[in-house]
Amino acid sequence: MDSLDDLGKISELDKGNILGSIDALPRQVSQAWQEVSKIASGLPEDYHHISNIVVSGMGGSALPGRVLHSLLLSSNLAPLEVVTDYTLPNYVRGDTLVILSSYSGNTAETLSATNEAQSKGAKIFIVTTGGKLAETARAKNIPGYIFEPKENPSNQPRMALGYTITANLALLSGLGFVKVGEAEIKKVVINMEADVAAMGVRAPQKENVAKIYSGKLKNKVPIIISSSHLTGVAHAFKNQLNENSKSFAISFDIPELNHHLLEGLKNPSHLKTLFHFLFFDSELYPDEIKKRYPITLDVVEKNDVESDLVKLRGSTKLEQVYELLVLGSYVSFYLAISYGIDPSPIPWVDYFKNELAKK
């Protein structure tokens, strides 16, 4: 039996039930869409009249902003910026929508940004499961989505992206800044359910693309390549490789990498044996982007670096974002299992937070 088909071994290692959270991603999407759509419909009228949007969050709670920024870049009706810091941009004012995202509700940087958003008179919407952020929202009558993560049994923020990406999307849709409706979300969920069935633990390794790619990435440095609408969710995949697989990983986007990275594959020469490029290609990329992929792949191969080209199948940009979310989540999980580790604990992140709290 292939190790990634050994259900007993997987269950023994996965003490925090990361797998349960991945399997539940379609249900996370459904729950968040239904709940936030109702909340958005009841927001004050002035929330519909804003000039710009800022999404403030850290780590897993910043990923929804990154995903939406790349997904909506060509269609959003208001500028959107992601902030991963203690402070907000100077331009934030009364006609700015500030979405404050903290899964725990206790993230120091996000709480600092909350205070600043209030002092600037911005329109605020929170996304959290509780903590100090929820307390502040209730005390100050700030609208938001304080949700019960019943479909995230691992209770890890990075594994709640079905909730948090969709919550942000439903909010912006309800306010009229993006055009996404119930029918599109239902199709996304149907596709995700099919992907979960195809990539889940009971799908044999020889037919399971997530297990196959995790095998190729073992003992390698994953280098994630994407473009356009996929750069945000590719960043999320990279983060999950860091946290779930405890693996160094890095992401680049085309066309930007064509202006520098191609010259960076020579030295130190011994490192190239560690690299494995994963190119995420899409028929929905602009033509000027699509023609760059085979040439970039050719350069990588000529430098004797391993690579794979992954073609996303979804018929819309939205479908492809959630498709890569499911694939990346499973790959990071199986890579952790192949290393013989529990993907849930993040001991060095926790150590850092504990040490910082002493300062």
Automatic annotation (TrEMBL):
Keywords: Isomerase. Transmembrane segments: none annotated. InterPro entries: Glu6P/Mann6P_isomerase_C (IPR019490), SIS_dom (IPR001347), SIS_dom_sf (IPR046348), SIS_PGI/PMI_1 (IPR035484). Residues 43-182 form the SIS domain. Gene3D superfamilies: Glucose-6-phosphate isomerase like protein, domain 1 (3.40.50.10490). GO terms for molecular function: carbohydrate derivative binding; glucose-6-phosphate isomerase activity; mannose-6-phosphate isomerase activity. The keyword Chloroplast does not apply. The keyword Methyltransferase does not apply. GO terms for biological process: carbohydrate derivative metabolic process; carbohydrate metabolic process. NCBIfam families: G6PI_arch (TIGR02128). This is Bifunctional phosphoglucose/phosphomannose isomerase. It comes from Candidatus Woesebacteria bacterium GWA1_42_12.
